[in-house]
Structure formats: structure tokens, C-alpha cells
Amino acid sequence: MGALDGRVAMISGAGTGLGRATAIAFAESGASVVLLGRRLERLEQTASIVLERTGRTSLTIQSDVTDEQQVMGAVESALAEHGRIDILLNNAAVLEPGSVMDLSAEEWQKQIATNLTGPFLLTKAVLPSMRKQKYGRIINITSSLSQNGAGGYAAYSAAKAGLESLTRTVADEEHEHGILVNLYNPGSLRSEMHATGKDPAAVTPDIVRLASLSFGGPTGTIHSYG
Q1: Is residue 3 part of a domain?
Q2: Calculated CA dihedral for residues 175, 178, 179, 182, nearest 10 degrees
Q3: If both were cysteines, with which of 49, 99, 193, 198 could 95 make a disulfide (CB 3.0 to 4.6 Å apart)?
């Protein structure tokens, strides 16, 4: 019996890096996985790896998390396929350098849209079904820059700080409905955004644990690797 047997998990940014690693880990733990991302070919690669390693098929949905209609469509498709969504991992992110003086309004909005508005839209879209089933686990990927900031990463730092506040707010609003909402800071990972760091698979046991929290577990809190 896996920790996530019978659960349905939706993962944004599932085409590469942490999203791909978590999709594999969730499937290995017994979950059906729904893969979201802008690049369909990368999602299909993830689905192929999941199938090879676990024998489980994945639902792949090409979707931009900054587009409300696409987000709503993705959630509707997942519900039509599986009838429920138990777990949401808000992982999709954009990390581009830029100081306050150098960033254009367009560059600022792009990062805020993906890193903060995207999780808001996905969370809002899955909440009705989670409320109906009186169960939900939402995990938002954060960064130490949310609290510390960093020169040259103004938009990313601000977006992650906003995501942390949003997480605590949703945790407070949804606790009575059996929905737990937490943050996870994986630290530096090797990915398209970072050339160096840990293998993303190293942190997936932590994410599986947050996804399988029992009723009465922590909510509105930050969890970190190591």
C-alpha cells in the first residue's frame, strides 16, 4: 500500500525538474497524476517515464497557469477523467534576474503572473471539488528569497513572499473543510533555472509526506529540505 493510494494529484510545471521528479514519486506512492505545463512534448516525456517506472498512465494537459480559462479547463478535464483532485502541487515558476531599476513593468508582471497569480488561479479552481469531498492537500513551492530577498531578483523574491502570505491565508480559510495548505522550500535544485544543486528526486520524499498528511496535520506552515 502506497502513501497516496487512490489519490489524484495535479502538478504544475510537470514537464521538467522538480515537477517531473514529483510526478514519478507520487505515482510510485500510488497516486494518479495529472501533468500541467506549457510544453506538451515535455509533459509527454514525463508521462512516458512515469509509465515506464510505475506502470501508471498520466493525464497530460497543456496549460498556461497564468491564463484563468486554461486553468479552469485543465481542472475540468482532470475532474472529468478522475472525478476528484486530492492534491495540488503549485510548482510552475519563472526565475529571471532583474533589479528594481532594471526590470520593465512587463518583465515584472511576467514573473508575478507565473509565480503568484498562477498558484492563486489553480488553488481557486480546485477548491470547490476539495470542499465537496472534505479533503485536500495543497503544496506551494517557495524559496528562501521570499524572506531574505536578493539583489537582482526583485520580482521572483516579491512573488514568493506573496505566495507565502497567500498560503497562510488559504490555510486559514480552508482548514474547516479538511484542506491543508503548506509551503515547501527545496533549496537549490538542478533544473532549467539552476545549473547546480541537488537532484530533484532527493526532496520528493518530503513532498510525498506533505501530500499524505492526515487530518489535523500542519497547515499554513513552511517545510524545508534537510
Answers
A1: no
A2: 70
A3: 193
